Model the fold of this input.
Amino acid sequence: MISAIGKYVGGKVVTILCVLGAGLAGIWFWRHPEDLRSLWTTIRLSFAWIAFAIALPWVTYPLIPRILKFESNSAGLALIAALCGLDMLMAMWLAGWHINGALTWTVVLVGWLAAGAYNYVICESLARHVDR
Done:
C-alpha cells in the first residue's frame, strides 16, 4: 500500500519537475535565441559524428581479409587504432579543432571510448563473417 502511494506521488513529482524544467527551458530559449541556435548546432554536429563513427568500421569490410592473412593480433589492433584515430580526428574537425572545458573533454573521451568498443565489436563480427 505504502509503495503504491510512493510510486503515485513520486510519479506526480517527477512529472511536475519535467513540466517545470521544460517550461523554464522554453522561457530561456525564447529570451536567448542564440543559445538555441548553438544547441541545435551542437546536436547536429553530434549526430554527424555518431553517423560517421557507426559507418566507419563497415567501410573497412574489404580490408578485413587482408588483415586476417597476417594472422596476428597486432594487425587487428592496428586497424582498431586507425579507426579510433579517424573517429577522434573527425570529432576534432567537427569541433573546429578546439575543445574547451573539462566536461566537454570528458564527453568527447567517453564518446571516443564508446566508438572504440563499437569498432572492436563490428570488426570482430566482420572477421567472423569473412572466416566462414
Observations:
- Residues 1-31 form one domain.
- The chain is about 85% helix and 0% strand.
